[in-house]
Design a protein that fits this description.
single chain; alpha+beta; two-stranded antiparallel sheet; 5 strands
Length: about 60
């Protein structure tokens, strides 16, 4: 499916960003390799974001990417 979009809900845990994915049994899975820093830059202006936010992504370009 060329238009498939996925969503996860990153949230702040201790000193980094993590996410859960019940489909594959991930709980508090940390982001690595600079992704926490990218998330920090993206959410810098969003108040109360530490509790989580929807993050849309796709293996293919999508409208507005």
């Amino acid at each position: 499916m060329s238009n498939a979009m996925m969503v996860i809900y990153p949230y702040r845990e201790q000193y980094t960003w993590v996410f859960d994915d019940e489909r594959v049994g991930l709980v508090r899975e940390p982001f690595v390799l600079g992704v926490p820093q990218m998330i920090e830059a993206l959410v810098a202006e969003i108040p109360n974001v530490n509790g989580g936010f929807p993050l849309l992504f796709s293996p293919n370009p999508f409208p507005g990417y």
